[in-house]
Amino acid sequence: MTADSPQTIQYCTFYLDDALYGIPIVGLQEIVRFREMMTVPLAPKEVAGLLNLRGQIVMAIDLRARMGLKPRSTDDRPINLIVRSSTDTISLLVDRIGDMVEVDSTMFDPTPPTVPAGIRDLVSGTYKLPNQLLVVINPDTACNLTVAEAS
Amino acid sequence: MEELDEIVGEFLVESYENLDKLDQDLLTLEAEGYPREMVAGIFRTVHTIKGTCGFLGYDKLEKVTHVGENLLSKLRDGALTPTSDITNALLALNDAMRSTLNHIEADGTEGEADYTQLVERLTQLAAGESAAATPAATTEEPVHEPPLLGEILIEQGKVEPQDVAEALAEQVAQQDEAQQEATKTTSAISESTVRVDVSLLDSLMQEVGELVLARNQLLQLSANNEDQTWKATVQRLNLITSELQQRVMRTRMQPIGNVWNKYPRIVRDLAAQCEKQVRLEMEGKETELDKTLIEAIRDPLTHIIRNAVDHGIESPEKRAEAGKPLEGVLRLRSFHEGGQVIVEITDDGAGVNVERVKEKAVEKSIITAATAKSLSDHDASMLIFEPGFSTAAALTNISGRGVGMDVVKTAIEAIGGAIELSSEFGTGTTLKLKIPLTLAIIPALLIGVGGKRFAIPQVNLVELVKTNNDSALIEWVAGAPVFRLREKLIPLMFLDSELGLREARTDSLGETFTLVVLNANEKTFGLLVEEVLDTEEIVVKPLSRQLAHLDQFAGATIMGDGEISLILDVVGLAKRASVITQEQRHELLGQEHDTAAAEHSEMMLVATVGSGRQVAFALENVARIDAISTDTVEKSGTDDVIQQRGSILPLVHVRSVIDGATDLGNEHVSVVVYRHDDYEFGLVVKDIVDIVDVVVKNQAKASKSLVIRGKVTDVIEPVKLISGITQGSANRDNELAKSGA
User: Fold this and answer.
1) What integer pLDDT is reported at residue B152 of this predicted model?
2) Quick check: ipTM above 0.90?
3) Nearest Cβ partner of A52 from B214, B543, B558?
4) What is the average pLDDT score of chain B?
5) Is the pLDDT of residue B24 over 50?
6) Which of B174, B427, B564, B565 is most buried when burial is the number of CB atoms within 10 A of its CB?
7) Which of B209, B211, B220 is nearest to B533 (CA)?
8) How far is CA B14 from CA B73, B107, B292, B324, B438, in A?
9) pTM for the predicted model, two decimal places
C-alpha cells in the first residue's frame, strides 16, 4: 500500500432493530453481556441503570431511548458496549453486536441534515457500505443527556 | 534539564514550607518581642532561599532576599531595634518571595512584579531609618557603624590585633559548630519522614476502599461457610483490612492548623485595613482531618474569618460605646465530636441584627412578611445563608463581599458537612462547622424500599422508630404527614413516593413502616422506609455527571454482595422536606406549643358574634377593621364577598363555626381584614369588643377557650377557617419555598 492510499478506520458495529451503527474501535473498552443493573429512580429515561464492572460503577445509557426509538421488548436482552468517553466510562445498551468492519475514509459522508436535531449531535456521519449504511455514533455525545432532554 | 526541574521543584516545595513557617514566626516575633533565636531562624530561612536563588539564577528574588537578609542579620545582632515598620517590611518581603515563587512554579520566570521599592525600603530599614522618616534628611549623614569590640580593645591597647583575629576565628568556628548541630537535628527529623505525592495517597486510599468492598463481600460469603479455618482466615483479613484502612486514612490526615496558619496574617492585615483591633485566638490547631477536606474548607473558612473581622467586630469607638474592651476577639476552636470535626468561629462583635435580616429577606422576597413575623430568631438568622441574600451591601454587620454566605454553606454541604449560626445581637456571633472526618469510607445504614436498597450516611442518622403498624402514629397536617417524636413534631417523607417509586399518598392505612429520623442542617425530619437492613462501611463513588442533578442521591456504592446501592443525600432530602411550606411548619409549631401545654402571651382581638358569644383571635395578622353595612355583601359563586378598594374581599363568617349561622341578619357588621400570605379575607363579626394581651394556656387541641373580660371566649384560628380560600396562595407559597431552596 502506498503512503497516499486512503486511510482505513476500524469500527465495532452493532444493531438497533435492523439498522447498523458503529463506534470507533479505539474508544471501545469491552463488550459485556446483559446483566441486571441498579436502576436509578428519577433519572432521565435514557439512563438504564448502574452497572458494577469489576468494582467500578458504570452508568448504562440505553441507546434506543437516547435515539428516540421505541423501547425494546422485555424479553430482549441488550448488550453492554463499554466505551471510554472523554470524561468517564459508560455503557451503551444496544440490541445486537455486529462485526468489526474496516472502512475506507472515502466512503464517509457527513450526517444528513434530515437527522432529527435531538440526535444529530450523536451521529458523527455515515459510511456507505456496499449493502448497508453504517451510522457512526459518537460515544462522547451519547452520554450528553441534556440535549436529549431539551428536544 | 530534567534534573534542574527537579531541583527547582524541590526548591519550591521547601521554600513554600519555609514561607508558611515564616509568616507564623514573623507575627509571633512581634508578639513576643523579637526573641533572638527566632530572628536567627528567620534569617536562616531567608538566607537559604537567597542562596538557592543565586544558584538557580533567579536574580530578582536574590536581590530582594539579599537586602532582607541584611536587615535580619542586623536585627539578630541587636544592631537594630525592632519596630512594627520592620515587621511590616518583613511581611512584605515574605509576600514578595511567595508571589515570585508562585510565578516560578507557574511558568518558570520570576514574573513582572517590580520590587525596587521594597528593596529600597528594606535597605533603609537595615540602615536604621524608619520608613516614615524622610530619606533626604538622613542620607546626608553617613551612617556610623558601631565600632566592633575588637577594634575598641585594640584602640585602647588592651590586646594585640592578632589575638583579636584568633578569638574571632574561634568564635566563628564555635558558631559553625552550633549551626551544624542544629542542622543535624533537623536532618534527623527529615530522615524519619518522607515526602509523598498526594496523588499516590489518593490512589492508595482508593485501593483500600476497593479492599474494604472486597472484604465486605468475603464476609458475606463466609457467613454461609462452615469451615472454621476459612472463617478464621476471613476474620483475620477483616481485622487487617480495618487496620490498614485506618492507617491509610491517617496518612491523609493533616492538622487543621495548616489552614489556620495564614489566618493570623489575614486577620492582622484586615484589622489594620478596617482600623479595628482584633485578637485572634486559636484552639485545637492539632485537630486532624482529611487533606481533601482541609482543602475544601480553606476558602469557606477564610471567607467566614474575613466576614467576622470586616462585619462582625465593631470599630474601637463603637466597642467603647457598647462598653466592650477595645480589642475584639476572634476565636477559632476545633475539636472532634461524634466522628466529626467541629470548627467554631466565634467573635464578640455586633452579632446578627435579626430584625434587619428579616426586613432584608422580605425586601428580597426570600420570605413573606407574614412568615417573617412568625420566624424564630434562630431561623431568621439562618436566612443569611439563603442565596441572593448576602449581596446586600446595606447589611453591614453580616454581608459579604460579593461571595455570599450561601456559597460558604454550599461548600460545606458539598463535603457532607453542616453549618450552624448562633448569634446574639450586640454580643457576638458563633458559626459552627461540622465536617466529616473523611469522605472516602463512611459507615452507612442500609434500608430497603420498593424492592431496592439504599444507603444512608450514619452521620445524619438520629434514631430509628418502629411504628408497629400503628398508622395512627403518622398524623396528617394539611396533606403533609408528621410524627410526634416526644415533644417535637417532625415532618415525614415516604421514601418510595419521594423517589417516584410510587405515587404520593394521602394516607398510610394498613402499611407498616420504620421511621428513620434524620438530621441535616439542623432540620430533623423522618423518612418512612419499608425495612431496615444492616449497617455497612461503604465507599462513596460519585454519580456520573448526568445524574448529578438528582439531589436525592449523594453517590453510589458497591455492596458486599456485589450489587450497587444508591446513597441518599440527606441534605438534599431535607431540602425537599422543607417544601412542606413555612406556613405548614408554623401551623405545626403552633400545635406543638398546644400539645406541650406551653404558655405564651399573645395580643388578641376580642369580638362578639351572633347572640353575644365572644370570640378572640390573634391580632398578629389583622390588617385593618372595617364596619360595613350588610347590604353591600354580594355573592361570588357560593361565597359571600364585598368590594373593597377596587378588589373583591372574600368573607368568612366567624359565627358559622359556633352555631352554623351568619351575622348577616344585622344591619351592620364588622369585617376584620385578615392577611394570610399576601392574601386578604374578611372575618365577619358582629362587634369588636377589645384588644387584650392574654396568656394562652391550652391543653385541648381542637377547641380552645379562654376567659376574657369575665366571659368564656372561643379562640379562633382564622387560618383554619379559610383553608379553601387560601389553597391557591398556599400553593404559591409552596412554589416560593421551592424556588428558594
Assistant:
1) 65
2) no
3) B558
4) 75
5) yes
6) B565
7) B220
8) 22, 18, 21, 44, 27
9) 0.50
